[in-house]
Amino acid sequence: MRNQYWDAWKGGAVLAVVLIHATGAALEFPPGTYNHQFAIALRQFINFPVALFVFLTAFFSVAARREDAGYIEKAWKRISRLMVPYLIWAAVYAAVRINNGVMSIGDVPLSLVNGKIVSVGYYVIVMVQFALLAPALDRLNARALCYLIPLSVLVSCSFTYAVRMSEYGGEWAGFPYNAIPFFLWLPFYLSGLLVAKAGMRVLAAIPRGIYFASLFAMFGLSAVEAAIFGDVPDLAVSQLKFTSIGTSLVICCLMAACVSSWGAAFGWRRAFVWLGSRSYYFYLAHMLVLVPAQRLLSKIPALYAFQPLFVPLAALFTIFICAVGALVADRVLQGRIAARRAIGLA
Question: What is the model's pTM?
Fold first, then answer.
């Protein structure tokens, strides 16, 4: 049975994902302009969703661990849950793009491998890597994890800063390759394992004020770092710069610490739970809606010129259309769990 608390957090992460991609329009404005600066500032507050999903994957991996399941069985179960919806949505994206003349059939194989076929499929490729590594990583004890987490942060940051700040101009410096290697996201996976194995009580005992003070401080530091690297926009908005990693880890710890304070799901909580229980569907589907939504809204010059309004409107419109699609699919596929799972709804 699904836990509504975790689903609510996933719902918040889904909203952040759509907002992140909606800021792409604002980042197209010249550096230094109000709209460009708005996008960079907003990103410092919403850079946590992929980190949170990776953290939760590790956290639940410990809870669902089966000693009698072999490596192949474990890996296959995880990969199939990821790849079936990915391939179905990839076929939809490919059909649309080939029809629109922006992709050829010859582009499909590489786009499948690097995730670009669904625009932001790098997340799927990252999670497949963790699915293959999970049987080994999940065996690490708490002491080993305490040593490996700071080391993994060092490795992740070293790669991120090296490829984005150096003169290196190869493929690994640009998206999606600068986000695909699993070790970039390893700090969050290891942290999820540590919290699940030994950290829940410790985190719950820390006063909530400490978390909020830490989060406020990390948001501030992230904004400062973004300002320092303002001439490297890709780094300024990165989810993987040092301060963004720190911010995401604080959010993940806060999430784990507050689980016992969750009450009944009503109002906004109920909406977030509904979104979170269908998070994979929203992740895979939203770019099909967001791009034409931005194109439509940009036909209003005054709105496009004021990105602080354009971005949230585009995101909300995208969520709404995707939600309508989910409601229709829920009705059509009612009781058909396998079919719902195949498109990311379960």
Answer: 0.94
